[in-house]
Amino acid sequence: MSLDVPAALLERAESGAVTDDEFVACVRESLPYAWQVISEVAAELGTGTAEFADHATPPPSETERGQLLRALASDAIRGGLERHFGMKLAFQNCHRVAGFRPAAVDGEVYREFISPAGQLRNQSPELRDC
């Protein structure tokens, strides 16, 4: 299961009345490692002028890796996080999370990061099983 949804929130979701803030709070509580990584990327992006910031440290366990996969593989979760933090997320190798400024999404750095060549350059034998 991706998220631990409180009964009251699930009840509101069944009627379609869930705010982004409620949804993001559920994500934060359910996927704390993913939240921490994405928060750190957002903070780093906010302190500089670079087009993007990233986190490339492998997770300490498969549990944490699973949180990243669930957060970034779900359109709803990823979209909620992007809106909350005001950045576009990109993901490689089951653990490399990058946050791009919205203005950079049409730029060369972003296109290179998400390109097949960019993915291939980020491979190594250690990452094959991630």
Q: What overall geometry do the principal axes of the alpha carbons give?
A: globular
Largest sheet: 3 strands, antiparallel
**What's the number of structural domains?**
1
List SSEs in N-to-C order. HHHEHHEEHH
Termini separation: 20 Å
Number of strands: 3
Q: What count of helical segments does DSSP give?
A: 7
Protein name: DUF222 domain-containing protein
Organism: Amycolatopsis acididurans
Features:
mainly alpha; 7 helices; 3 strands
Secondary structure topology:
Layout: H1 7-14, H2 20-30, H3 32-47, E1 52-55, H4 62-73, H5 75-85, E2 88-92, E3 96-100, H6 108-113, H7 116-121
Antiparallel strand pairs: 1-3, 2-3
Organism: Amycolatopsis acididurans
Protein name: DUF222 domain-containing protein
Pfam family, one: KH_NucS_shadow
Task: Give structural notes.
With 130 residues, this protein is mostly helical. The chain has one domain (32-127). The chain contains 7 helices and 3 strands, in the order H-H-H-E-H-H-E-E-H-H. Strands 1-3-2 form a 3-stranded antiparallel beta sheet. A hairpin with a 3-residue loop joins strand 2 and strand 3. This is DUF222 domain-containing protein. It comes from Amycolatopsis acididurans.
Gist of the model:
With 130 residues, the protein is mainly alpha-helical.
